[in-house]
Amino acid sequence: MRKILKLSVIAVLLVISNYRLNAQASINLIIFPELSSIDFAAFDFTSSRNISQRLIQIVISPPGIEVIVEGKVDWKKDERSGFQELFRFRTKKFLSRTFSNDEINNSDIEIEKTSFNSNLTSDIIKKGKPSGVVGIELRLLDPRGNFISKDYEEISFLNPTAPSIILPVDGSSYDIGSIILQWTASVGVTSYKIKANYVADNITNLESALNSGNPLIDDYDVGTVTSIRLNDILKRELLTDTNIVVVVKAIVQGPGGGDVLSSPLVMFKTNATGVKTVTLSGNPDLVRLANLLQNQISNQIRDKLINGEIQPEQIQLSDENGNTISFSEFVTILNFLEQNNNSIISIKYSPK
Q1: Looking at the 3D structure of the chain, how many domains does it have?
Q2: Is 16's pLDDT higher than 50?
């Protein structure tokens, strides 16, 4: 009877101990910020190839308890694609602590089993420098394989693209009292800089006009916002009945100081306060579409998109197979095209 009671007490203590472990233990995944010099092979955490490439830090709390870690790495080509599994792994039991990916299979943290999508993994590793989006999921298990905790992070390697100016619209006129500058966002940007200058009526080289004399706005840093009132950042007086050229520059950090990605130049005209100006009433997403396709559609269609003569409910959207897509799905595609405008092969317009 005493032995039975003793065994029952031990079983209860084991249950309590396991409950405390599950309730208190946690895993935290930290991505190191500077990943510009790595290659895709570094994401194979189970191989000795990653020994010199430290990507992530794994923090398991509390330290010193016996645990197992399961990991999974997924990849998607771009924002229009879905994630595909690259590989997954499971470690043997080890005592919890803080460690980095280059310690997996190179220390007391040993791999028990792995599985790979061999075709996809080979194709991606051949690319060398990462692209797309990598998703990393880590799961913390107790010594019996019961789930305790998990963490997930994504690393984006989508190539940054230059912003595109939404407002002012090229060739339009605006009240001098309040001119709004709005542009599309660029991936990986750390700040935007604005430059603007006057353009004489007989000048055809807008780039030369932008960089001549004393600019109205001279590379003014506006941070990471994507719209601003031009009047608030002027260096000197804004005159009426004049042409203005403006550019938005995206500053993207990277090796060797990073890149400066400039938007296409936009020229607009100023009017005196109270003078009737061009009023934009178009849907903001259709204005974005008009600016994206400004060199690939007629001015008539572009103007109708901008001034609101064409509204979303008047547009029927379909994919290459004729299946109808929603306007929200179209906006997702538009976001992709703004970052990858070289993906546009052809445009067909069919009025109804």
Answers
A1: 3
A2: no
